[in-house]
Amino acid sequence: MAIPGMDRKAALGGRSEYQDIFESSADGIIISDITSGCVLQANPAACRMHGYTREQMIGAELSSLIHAEARRQFNDNLRTFHPDSAFDTWTRLLRKDGSTSYSRWRGTSMEYRGHRCMLWSVRDVSERIHAEQTLRQRLQSQAREQTAMLGISKTLASTLEFPPGLILDQLQELIPYDRAAFFALDGPALVTMATRGKLSEDPAAPIRVHLQGPETLTVLFNANQPIRIGNVWGKGWQAAELRALLGEDASILLDGMQSWMWVPMAVREGILGGLGVVHARKSFYTAHHASLALGVAHQAVTSLVHTELYRNAQSAAAEDERKRLAQSLHDAVNQSLFSAGLIAEVLPEVWDRDQELARRSLEDLRRLMRGANADMRALLAELRPSTITDAEMGALLQLLNDAFTGRTNIPVELTVGGEGSLPGEIQLAIYRICQEALANVAMHADARRVQMVLYQDGSSVELSICDDGRGFDPDGIAPGHFGLHIMRERAEAVGASLLITSQAGRGTALNIRWPAGSGPEVG
């Protein structure tokens, strides 16, 4: 073979440094005829790359070395190639055995044995392509997990009633399972508050797991870390202890299953319960699954504590009890901060891959932080009841609206008219009714926007709250519905009128008037 640029001595039989480079290069080097498209020369690396001997490579059509799905694009690029430029493309290489890999082809035109030819440098870039695909898949997975975690955070932050079944439903968006159970500690036993997945037989009552002393709780707490068992029917001590702990009553959770994961829910004072998920495949749950489940458990604990504190607040009258409540409710802001932390953690990688998605994530981060700040100011107001009773009603409502929009991303349009001041107990009652109404919108309405109009005239006030959500049939609401019941009780306690009108698919409107004599009776 004669390589262009060789001296005459080398061409007559000696080897040159160019020949050595050609033979020893780690990249494939191919010379092809521009007119016929046939391979004229190929170095050992190119032959190994394609799985051919040199004799088989020589004379083969260049396009036969390219995968059929990429061949047309490669040939189109080659036809438009200008001799004075460089050819550079990424394509799929086809080996003799039919397997493929990704390769980068760089070509320049040259004279070889009196013909116009192409000199090709071919490099296998499969590892790089696979690494980029893996990174892309990981970012997409992180984005899905982030969206699901934010959804859980939004749901828990918008409800005043603890939803164990809903937590299990949303958990499945992050972690696949065949069965799941939400356990709460009830004295000397763990009791299911909700289960998901088909059981071999449906229990007539909640499943009870009887604990055998405080040492069992210590094992279950596991330093607040998840426990994974790859084979619940295996001979390992953890599997044996699990079967013994669940006993006959709870054994239906394991029937036909293989993998088990337990995630404790605990606070500083002790364990509150836990999440148990099972899967039919052995060793299904990974450390990443455990990390995600622990994040959900932390949010569930915050919501559970928040709900308990809210219920306690309904009967708390003493000033010291309100101070304890406000201090504890401070933890509720952690839900927004947890979600903001998830966004901040993946934002640098997202920015490198998709700046438009990163900008949307930044907007979510800004909204969450603004909502957390509004939540914090509202919670701090609980420390000093005079803050609520002495402030302007419009400013109080704006504070509630900012916190609501930060948690739910639902905009609130507030219109304030008139002037006046209200007795402290009246202003506090209207503030609480508005707080509960916004919580109901977040939890039930599926609304896109909320309109709020406040009008004060001397010592009277009228407040209307309207949403464009799904609405409901007022006659179909069971007596004593928690949210509506509390609002009616608050209105009646201060002599205000409350009218709630709604229709399925037409949204909901709430109207409060004080004094009650200036408006309709409580609805």
Query: How are the strands of the largest sheet arranged?
Result: 8-7-6-11-10-9
* Alpha-carbon Rg, integer: 35 Å
Largest sheet: 6 strands, antiparallel
**Which range best describes the helical content: under 10%, 10-25%, 25-40%, 40-55%, 55-70% or over 70%?**
40-55%
Number of strands: 16
| Tally of contiguous helical segments | 17
Report the portion of residues in β strands.
15-25%
Low-confidence stretches: 1-14, 327-332, 519-523
Q: Could you report the average pLDDT, rounded to the nearest whole number?
A: 79
Counting helices, strands and paired strands, the structural category is alpha+beta
Form type: elongated
N→C terminal distance: 99 Å
- As an assembly, this protein is single chain
Please render the helix and strand layout as text.
Elements: H1 8-11, H2 17-24, E1 28-33, E2 39-42, H3 44-50, H4 54-57, H5 68-79, E3 87-94, E4 100-112, E5 115-124, H6 126-157, H7 164-174, E6 179-186, E7 189-196, E8 208-210, H8 214-221, E9 227-229, H9 237-246, E10 259-267, E11 270-279, H10 287-315, H11 319-329, H12 333-353, H13 355-383, H14 385-390, H15 393-408, E12 412-420, H16 424-445, E13 450-458, E14 460-467, H17 482-493, E15 497-502, E16 508-514
Parallel strand pairs: 12-13
Antiparallel strand pairs: 1-2, 1-5, 3-4, 4-5, 6-7, 6-11, 7-8, 9-10, 10-11, 13-14, 14-16, 15-16
Helix pairs in contact: 6-7, 6-10, 6-12, 7-10, 10-11, 11-13, 12-13, 13-15, 15-16, 16-17
